[in-house]
UniProtKB/TrEMBL annotation:
Domain of life: Bacteria
Protein name: ABC transporter ATP-binding protein
Ranges for domain ABC transporter: 4-226
GO molecular function: ATP binding
Signal peptide interval: none
Keywords: ATP-binding, Cell membrane, Membrane, Nucleotide-binding, Translocase, Transport
Protein's UniProt keywords contain Cytoplasm: no
Residues of the full protein shown: 1 to 226 of 420
Amino acid sequence: MAGIEMKNIVKKYGDGFPAVNDVSIDVEDGEFLILVGPSGCGKSTLLRMIVGLEDISGGDMMIGGKRVNDLAPRERNLSMVFQNYALYPHLTVYENIAFPLRLANKPESEIDQKVREASKTLELDEHLERKPGNLSGGQRQRVAMGRAIVRDAEAFLFDEPLSNLDAKLRGQMRTEISRLQKRLGITTVYVTHDQTEAMTLGDRVAVLKRGVLQQHATPRELYENP
Ligand code: ADP
Ligand code: ADP
């Protein structure tokens, strides 16, 4: 596991106004950070720069004390959970979770152990032979997290993972993600535009507006001093 340090991060697309403008945020080892702000404020861009899906125009991105600006996504050992979960519909739950381990050519015994461990943690052990099409939204979300867990990634990154779910399930999944994150103690950056998620999920909240960091504080501090 590792902390993530963003120092004076800038992203420019072409000649326009920077999408991310001189943002410095320290995410401590094991911390759950929420990135929040209105559509177009630069949340996804910042997340994509952490993961390595987007080039960084300026500043330093450090993961576990190591500068990663020029490292490819697979060299950063991070796990991203997308909004649509990106599950493989033709593969079982077991094979969906095992997928990154198969890609990495891990031995069968290790794959089996890790998949069973993760599915126990996520309470998916009774659904391992099912296909994603037969699962509830919450179960699909857990499969996506399982795939992230088995990789022993240094950090989890979430891009609006709950925005496709109905209100009831969103509430359940909020509780579940928060509980899992605490249990795993894994550094997490979570992008949302939902105020409730921002104020209930994280240890700290970073508020972006037009690419600029407006506030960086605990939910309590933000509540008392909005
Ligand atoms: P958010 O995730 O907060 O909705 P984004 O990071 O997607 O915001 O976008 C921030 C700004 O950068 C927006 O003005 C958006 O139009 C712009 N932007 C995002 N991606 C690109 C891109 N690939 N090319 C040009 N502009 C982009
Ligand atoms: P989000 O829901 O994450 O804000 P968007 O609809 O803003 O998604 O963007 C979807 C995709 O289009 C992203 O890959 C983003 O980088 C790209 N994109 C966003 N704005 C622009 C833009 N102005 N020009 C080119 N690509 C963009």
